[in-house]
Amino acid sequence: MKEASKIEKFVIAKVKEKRETAGLTQIVLSQKLNMSDSFVGHVETPRRRAKYNINHINALAKIFKCSPKDFFPDKPI
Prior knowledge:
The chain is mainly alpha-helical. It has a single domain, classed as lambda repressor-like DNA-binding domains (434 Repressor (Amino-terminal Domain)), CATH 1.10.260.40. Helices cover about 50% and strands about 0% of the residues.
């Protein structure tokens, strides 16, 4: 199984940080994204293939009331 890239790991970490700050469980965030209850858990587990895509990032920005660019680094990795 292919390991997540540096940019994917960065985005996953940012989403996890915002999720924990907001006090949301993986299940609750998965439900807010209209995904299966296990989706966020799969994304946050390094050995799984699930990743966030651009549509997920846009939905996450709406959920957390921020800009989609808040999930990306300021400079390329």
